[in-house]
Design brief:
The structure is a homotetramer. Chain A is an alpha+beta fold. The first copy, chain A, is built from three helices and eight strands. Chains in contact: A-B, A-C, A-D, B-C, B-D, C-D.
């Protein structure tokens, strides 16, 4: 059984704050990748039950990023909740690619892609996607022509 | 007279610290864009004499980012100084594209591209590259086949 | 009618993350004041309907801090939700003093006090506590011998 | 031979940036403890040759904070270099107390005190001040009536 596309859209909500904003009165550019990364951390917790902290410390699974790209469409401010929609768009042998769309008040603020690889955390050696959650992760893959 | 390519390589040094690192004992992914952005802020101060703070508050010139992309090659740690080399690689009518290369101990740690546009800061309306420093900025443009 | 002491205990919950932690695998010292400040920002939004961002930009009311003190009792980690209990413990003519207690899994992690003053935001001149929400704020004051 | 008081004043300079500032156009309150902590990290590197990262990872010496207090005197902005003067003001059996004074353009912006304790980093057990650098640290103690 394959989950349908809607099921695979995970949304993480962030309350943007005064401390996130710069003198231009909008969230500082460097905060946007933080928001997207937080949403991906929440995706892991949602899909496999462990966030990066537990994966790393309890299971010796590290997931360093090798690539990020973000296009900024509209400023992010504290006036509305920031909804970060995370989707798994590609699954390699030892890597995962996410897209993250950030919206406020139903307007797209940024969109980006983020690629993580799996490593043995202590040894820092590349590993395949761990068997224990491979299936759960695969089930989240969004097939474009689905 | 055109400056040669070497003159156009501006390097900003960052002392990476404990506070930048996560439990994997390396600088957190989200810190890398911060480092690159800091280097670009320093580039402006070096080239035109004003950093983003002064540009924005004193001259009403805002320079929001519309795009960033970063490829991570090696972990960044506090063990070596992080040298961020900034180059202006493209100049549009109202935008500038920078490349930033981050090295530690002569090893490439990350490389990325960052695109800013010019706006009237208070009005948040797109403007052309300001006349008062247009020439100085143009002189920094790296021509690939130069 | 006076609210009883329990009503005056506002709790703000924070999901501590990988990005908050340092190589000692606990939230970095400098993050703790951020957490407490976030809880105070949430207190304002809860009590008067405006957070610092709206107070400052929409009502020209600034609330800079003049004092903070924090005692750290136990490490903060991503393993449990961080509950930040905020109480208004003193109300001066133009200042407010909060206590913030941070607990995880019912264990006290930190406690601190934070003092803000009221200023006209643009002019940066001290002002009294604004009439429009003075009563609501006063109603939150915790009387120790109450 | 005892170093005189002037020799014991270590100053760490910080270039405050756009990214440190909030919509009030000054460094966000939560950044000030970060600046002071960075200055203390630099003090360790200056006095014993190791920063927190090396102390922790290479020598298994952790130095968690148990107390911080900061009084804010004037706003911190990117307009001037922030000079953080660090002094060791108290030395216990297994703790150190620092004072940090932050000035910009010769005006006091903040002053605070920060207390660290020594622990075996992996075991998280309190230890005495390590013999290998005890003498060097003691030599930095500022005697008020000196």
């Amino acid at each position: 059984m394959v989950a349908n596309k809607m099921d695979k859209k995970f949304t993480h909500k962030i309350h943007v704050r005064w401390s996130d904003c710069d003198p231009a009165k909008i969230a500082f550019t460097g905060r946007i990748p933080y928001f997207a990364l937080e949403a991906i951390d929440a995706w892991w917790e949602h899909v496999i039950g462990d966030d990066w902290y537990r994966l790393n410390l309890d299971k010796n699974i590290g997931t360093p990023f090798v690539h990020i790209t973000v296009d900024f469409r509209r400023p992010v401010t504290p006036r509305h909740i920031l909804c970060c929609q995370v989707q798994l768009v590609k699954l390699g042998d030892s890597s995962v690619r996410f897209s993250v769309h950030g919206t406020q008040d139903d307007q797209l603020c940024f969109e980006g892609e983020f690629v993580e690889v799996f490593v043995a955390a202590q040894e820092h050696i590349k590993i395949g996607i761990p068997q224990e959650f491979k299936e759960r992760v695969e089930s989240q893959l969004v097939i474009e022509n689905e």
